[in-house]
């Protein structure tokens, strides 16, 4: 039964990430429910969803373009530094503390996902060229640290950030979002592995299920209205948040 839960969650998470995001709303609770400690569950779920980010980078390889406020080299460096810092922060967080933080992280991630369009609209109304040197770099670093620590809602935050930094082409924003996600997840996975917090049997099986789910999800996405998808994911996020608060 535990393996069925993990496989089902990974498959659904891969499908969600392919069409809208929010896959970590399923992988983290599923792993915790099956007995994986919270810190290890967070790390394992991140490892499981990593191939999807790499596939996304390849899919948008011709569209990637850095925003006016940051160079590609700076984005790569800040993504790696932030992802590493977030991963180290997770490793030094005790299981008891992370258990208390999980519902708040899920709540924030759900809120970010729910108000993603408004967040992007607000960010896009600003002129990215006017963002100061330090503000643009510190913002990029902060989002990368968040992604290395907890992956939920990362895609929406990155899209909003790139809008704020002056990027206006949606395909370019999506390409950069996938690139940053892949980079910070890669360095986080390396640190998680060195910290011995990854449940590798579960992670490897979930990788396969998430990859299959991602492919099928992308194929089926056109048949489901985007609005229903978004609010369905928000409902799942709120349900998982409530369950963790009650626990």
Automatic annotation (TrEMBL):
<feature type="transmembrane region" description="Helical">
    <location>
        <begin position="228"/>
        <end position="246"/>
    </location>
</feature>
<feature type="transmembrane region" description="Helical">
    <location>
        <begin position="200"/>
        <end position="216"/>
    </location>
</feature>
<dbReference type="InterPro" id="IPR002781">
    <property type="entry name" value="TM_pro_TauE-like"/>
</dbReference>
<feature type="transmembrane region" description="Helical">
    <location>
        <begin position="178"/>
        <end position="194"/>
    </location>
</feature>
<dbReference type="Pfam" id="PF01925">
    <property type="entry name" value="TauE"/>
</dbReference>
<dbReference type="GO" id="GO:0005886">
    <property type="term" value="C:plasma membrane"/>
</dbReference>
<protein>
    <recommendedName>
        <fullName>Probable membrane transporter protein</fullName>
    </recommendedName>
</protein>
<feature type="transmembrane region" description="Helical">
    <location>
        <begin position="75"/>
        <end position="94"/>
    </location>
</feature>
<dbReference type="InterPro" id="IPR052017">
    <property type="entry name" value="TSUP"/>
</dbReference>
<feature type="transmembrane region" description="Helical">
    <location>
        <begin position="101"/>
        <end position="119"/>
    </location>
</feature>
<comment type="similarity">
    <text>Belongs to the 4-toluene sulfonate uptake permease (TSUP) (TC 2.A.102) family.</text>
</comment>
<keyword id="KW-1003">Cell membrane</keyword>
<keyword id="KW-0812">Transmembrane</keyword>
<keyword id="KW-0472">Membrane</keyword>
<keyword id="KW-1133">Transmembrane helix</keyword>
<feature type="transmembrane region" description="Helical">
    <location>
        <begin position="139"/>
        <end position="166"/>
    </location>
</feature>
<keyword id="KW-0813">Transport</keyword>
